[in-house]
Amino acid sequence: MTGPQAANSKTNWDIGGKTVGLTKGQRERYARNVALKEINQEGQRKLLQSRVLVIGAGGLGSPAILYLAAAGVGTIGIVDGDAVDLSNLQRQILHGTQDIGVEKVRSARRAALNIDPDICVHTYHTAISEGNIMDMITDYDFVVDATDNFEAKFLINDACVLAEKPFVHAGVIRFQGQLMTYVPGCGPCYRCIFKNPPPETAVPSAQEEGVIGAVCGIIGSMQALEAIKYLTGVGQLLTGYLLTCDALTMELRKVKLPKRTLDCAVCGEDPKITKIGAFEKK
Lower CB count within 10 Å: N or C terminus of the chain? Predict the structure, then answer.
């Protein structure tokens, strides 16, 4: 795995060819991270130099953003085109009653900087689209898919595969959640497993079926953990696996996925998707 590029303009780690350690304040703030032998000061430096883009500041994005900020990820990008609604507050813990009517990205930025004012938070008050996603992901080391619709999930997958960007997918409904991680060259992508978006009315939404907020917390926190593991190079990622959670029975299952699908439309041997927004026939 290639290490993430230096990203936080507020922190210069190499001065005159010498590596600069953590400041006294950073050593105190991140003491529990540094105490982990898998992370230590070197891993913390990697986090501070890293850039993560979170697409969606709702139920999944809330815990993901909060834990990425708390871990000291130096630059966090937040994408969301919505404003806070009263019905969001049951699960979207980035936001409070005082934020109703406020752009979610503004509320999310405030919450992240309240945890760690020294990180850099970029906001994008827009929905992702075929026209903006490639530019949006370019400067980031890792992408968190915290969206709630299939169209966005397939768009994120295709863009990340084409741009060779690692990302973690997740979805939640009722008391269930799932997640998987894609790393270029390591295991299948989202489209390898799920092929194409289902018909519009084939799968009920969380708005129709409901979702318990704590499940969003569990799965969104796991997304943050996958990002942290990738950025620091520790542990085993969910590449080639789908993790499912049934909160009613408290059962977690790690399902081994098939290897990369050779006929996948975006990462197969003869891909039909060679640029975003178009299927190019070969």
Answer: C
| Alpha carbons 166 and 168: distance in angstroms, whole number | 7
Residue 207 has pLDDT above 50, yes or no: yes
CA atoms of 247 and 174, how far apart (whole Å):
9
CB 89 within 8 A of CB 246: no
Q: What is the pTM of this model?
A: 0.91
Single out the residue of 174, 202, 160, 180 nearest to residue 59, CA to CA.
174
Residue 248: HSE in the Cβ half-sphere, 13 Å Cα cutoff: 5
Q: DSSP of 190-223, one letter per residue? A: HHHHH-SPPPTTTS--HHHH-B-HHHHHHHHHHH
Here the tokens at position 35 are: 């105490």
